[in-house]
Amino acid sequence: MRTIIVSQDFPPDIGGIQTYTVELARRFTKYASHVSVIAPEKEIANRTDKLEPFHVHRIPSANTLLPVTLMPLLPVIAQKENPDFIFHTQWQTVVNSIWTKKWHDHKIITAIHGRELFFTPFPRNSSAEKLYLNKMVRILRQVDHFFPVSNYTRELLLNLGIPSEKMTLFNNGTDPDYFRPIEVNGLHEKLFGKKRPVIMTMARLVSWKGIDMVLKALPRIKKAIPDILYLIVGEGPDRKRLEQIISDLDLKDTVRFMGAYRDERRVQYYNLCDIFVLTSKFEYPGVEGFGIVFLEASACGKPVIGSRTGGIPDAIDEGKTGLLVEQLDAEALADAVINLLKNPDYAAELGRNGRAKVTERANWDVIGAQMFNKMSNLHKNSMYQLSAKSG
């Protein structure tokens, strides 16, 4: 079976969809006779692409413009590579596969992560936005099958009128061989001068990630855990606002911005913390469709705390691998953090359960195999139907 994967977001860029795309492409190469990826051009792409077990077509294009720049190119690539499936990691490029069907017969699959179904380039509630969303639904109805990443994103599809039989839920995964418990002895002292209780968020600094809610919970946490340290790993446009909140709440000695995260430091940061926290909130169009970072932290044996919003409840088994709090409840968040720091045995149990979850089922090897098996069944059914029509 032959597959082309189309993604507007792909390494060397960092993010959830980038991880999703490259990890699945790597797993598909174990089973497919051909796998290639189509992605926007990046400065250091040639070096990183050569390390992958699949071919990468780099299109000279900004990420957001790929649906336009790819239009004349996808039919040519499809004619050459003869895919059975074109798998889109975002719905916006599906229009390219629809156009390509004029010359090449293939099935169209798209993943659904969440935020892309809310985002539009037009003002909210404007007539232009309504036209855009109507066009989106018409495009989605021409997709053969959907792979939503959470129950939340599955519900979004159902609300748009997509029948349940056209979708299969596959939660995200992670790599437990890469994200794993490691010793970080001495790193606390090297970075902070002494060992302190640490909570951490790793995310792009945008308002809907809810980092401000952790900051608002910190004064209450400090009363119970005076030496608490909050690490913010990542960069983004919300940093100045967060710095102002830190100043207003007199938290300069309690919060550290660690800058942009790169793969070689991520495992260290996860192992450095006692608790991983990400309290994303629904802030149109921002929403956490799943939250791969929770699985990464779990793979490192850490308890996790998330907000009960979007697809986060699929990433956290409440009371088993971590805790859930309401998205705007700073007091509940503070109490959850205090509870875990005051009960290290319980926190360790959550971490062990999280590691077990990832090694047993929430990993890309298992998910990639299940996903490819589903695609194979779709392909077989399609061949059977074609054979029946011919007969």
Largest sheet: 6 strands, parallel
Percent of residues in helices comes to 40-55%
Tally of separate domains: 2
Assigned CATH architecture of the largest domain: 3-Layer(aba) Sandwich
Question: Which of globular, elongated, flat, extended, rod-shaped describes the shape?
Answer: globular
> Which sequence of strands runs across the widest sheet?
3-2-1-4-5-6
Query: What portion of the residues fall into strands of 2 or more residues?
Result: 5-15%
Total of helices:
16
Between the first and last Cα atoms, what is the distance in angstroms? 23 Å
Task: Report Rg.
Answer: 22 Å
The CATH homologous superfamily of the largest domain is termed Glycogen Phosphorylase B
- CATH C-level label of the largest domain: Alpha Beta
List low-confidence stretches: 386-391
Structural category: alpha/beta
CATH topology of the largest domain: Rossmann fold
- What is the string of helix and strand elements? EHEHEHHEHEHEHHEHEHEHEHEHEHHH
Number of strands: 12
Q: What's the pLDDT, averaged over the residues?
A: 94
Give a brief description.
This protein has about 400 residues and is an alpha/beta fold. It has helices at about 15-30, 45-50, 65-70, 75-80, 95-100, 125-140, 150-160, 185-190, 210-225, 240-250, 265-270, 290-300, 310-315, 330-340, 345-360, 365-390; strands at about 1-5, 35-40, 55-60, 85-90, 105-110, 145-150, 200, 230-235, 255-260, 275-280, 305, 320-325.
